[in-house]
Amino acid sequence: AQKQGKSSFVLYDASMQLELQSRMKMEARLLSALDHDEFKLVYQPQVDSSTGRISGFEALLRWENPELGQVAPDKFIQIAEDIRQIIPIGEWVLLTACRFLKKLHNSGYEGYKISVNISVIQLKQEGFVHTMADILQKVDLPAEFLEIEITESLFMESSERNELIAKLDQLRQLGIGIALDDFGTGYSSLDYLRELPITTLKMDKKFVDPIEQDEDSRSLASAILLIGHSLGLKIVAEGVETASQFHFLKTHGCDKIQGYLFSKPLGEAEVAGLLSKWDDGRA
Ligand code: C2E
Ligand code: CA
Ligand code: CA
Ligand code: CA
């Protein structure tokens, strides 16, 4: 028995070793990924549920490394945050997303908005508000077309929560929209809805998924819509995959829909292709 114990310890140790090695490898690759041009953005349409028209896009980051292949954001964002590399990466994301939108506007596709995911590490950074204002000015994009998406769980644990809220206020004053992402997951508290200067609520996929299945789930989804609307927020439902989910959400006043039912995240050329088919408002 002792022998077995020992060998399983060795195995465990070896797998820990491997994990550490792969983690360090990913950190090293992340540090050079920007210089090597390994990131790109894809854009997922958000559809106005009452008109059925695209109102904007969420920018989502993609990383392809020659050695690691395609790495999903869920696998690398956290690591990029841990090593603070999310700061330059996040700045690249903002600049690239704003330039993309400006290009659309310049091609006659006016009125579309862009939503960009922001890590709390970025928000905490000194001068973040200034960076945002600089980017908008450099790209010559009016602030009202930009929305940032933040997650709530990060505010809980932060000792700087008052400063963070003050920064969000400053961003609002610039005219930038603020969406609370993944609402209802993690450590959500309804109090955040009152406390944070947000303009949009993103209802997490976990509330959308079971809408077809049971009455309780439908009650919960419609209650979220009621609360959000009574606080003056716009609501975007995430991960909408079926027509009946869409029908329920639209009937209950959900403002916008995002999900595979309408479109997966698209590359820049695919967006142009989609708009040339769908946008009849082109100048
Ligand atoms: P998120 O912000 O909640 O993004 C939504 C995720 O759901 C995206 O995954 C999107 O591709 C996926 N999705 C959209 N519609 C559907 C659907 O109908 N069904 C299903 N099953 N999935 C759907 P993705 O692109 O893998 O991003 C994962 C997460 O990574 C994001 O979650 C966000 O938290 C983070 N992330 C992505 N890009 C960035 C970025 O530029 N900066 C930061 N800080 N985080 C990012
Ligand atoms: Ca998001
Ligand atoms: Ca989300
Ligand atoms: Ca998420």
Plain-language structure description:
- This protein has helices at 2-33, 73-82, 86-106, 120-124, 128-139, 153-156, 161-174, 191-195, 205-208, 215-230, 243-251, 268-278; strands spanning 39-48, 54-65, 69-71, 113-117, 146-151, 177-183, 200-203, 234-237, 256-257.
- With 283 residues, the chain is α/β, with parallel strands linked by helices.
- Strands 1-2-4-5-6-7-8-9 form an eight-stranded mixed beta barrel, surrounded by four helices.
- Strand 1 and strand 2 form a beta hairpin.
- Helix 5 packs parallel to helix 7 (161-174).
- 30% of the residues are buried.
- The model has no long low-confidence stretch (mean pLDDT 92).
- One calcium ion binds at residues 181-182, 202, 238.
**What are the low-pLDDT stretches, counting only 5+ consecutive residues below 50?**
none
Helix content: 40-55%
What is the count of DSSP helices, taking H or I runs of 4+ residues? Answer: 12
Chemical compounds bound to the protein: ligand C2E, calcium ion
What Rg, in angstroms, do the CA atoms define?
A: 21 Å
Structural class: alpha/beta
- Spatially, the strands of the biggest sheet line up as 1-2-4-5-6-7-8-9
Shape: globular
